[in-house]
Amino acid sequence: xxxxxxxxxxxxxxxxxxxxxxxxxxxxxxxxxxxxxxxxxxxxxxxxxxxxxxxxxxxxxxxxxxxxxxxxxxxxxxxxxxxxxxxxxxxxxxxxxxxxxxxxxxxxxxxxxxxxxxxxxxxxxxxxxxxxxxxxxxxxxxxxxxxxxxxxxxxxxxxxxxxxxxxxxxxxxxxxxxxxxxxxxxxxxxxxxxxxxxxxxxxxxxxxxxxxxxxxxxxxxxxxxxxxxxxxxxxxxxxxxxxxxxxxxxxxxxxxxxxxxxx
Length: 263
Hints:
The protein has eight helices and four strands. By secondary structure, it is mainly alpha-helical. The protein has one domain (3-249). The strands form two sheets. A two-stranded antiparallel ribbon has the order 1-4. Strands 2-3 form a two-stranded antiparallel ribbon. Strand 2 (65-71) and strand 3 (77-82) form a beta hairpin.
């Protein structure tokens, strides 16, 4: 069955390509000029909030209790929860990487169908704010901070508030084109971070016994962590492939809709 880029999707595809080139360019340059890493640092922290938020939401959906959510200044994060069983534990451990990928793909689909980028930014801001307030502040408080370090607690609150305000400000004050670019950039950053993190955790699982989501899966099932990472990679690649196809192509012929650059 033949597919081609839909005519009305061409501006959106161009936007996505530009966002991808900028993201990868900044990532490569930061290897040689570390100062450039600060340009994408807030997006790295945002991706960590999405990752840890996936753990927290899957915990709630499976009836598990969440003790705390924390994000560290180095871009790592932790969610302390008590799974209710094997299925709960597997879903919670998988929800970080796959949840980040799903969030990025969801942003692509949102833009492809001409939905408001401002709403996407406000939803993203609301998600970060909810995770920060409920699982970063209130839940640790009622658990007497038994699973949170002081540094991690304060950085989580500070970074969560700044990110939520920043995203809301872009939604409110940016022009339509810049709001569209911001959403495309967030989508690309989520997808790239999910892929790079999976590659990192694969090598960690292969060479060390460090704590990770893959190590949790291995402890729960007896299946090596590398196998679980490979499974997550395959699922992520399938999700990204489907998302890109939805974003940029149309079966047989294009239909006339509003441009992605319209407000």
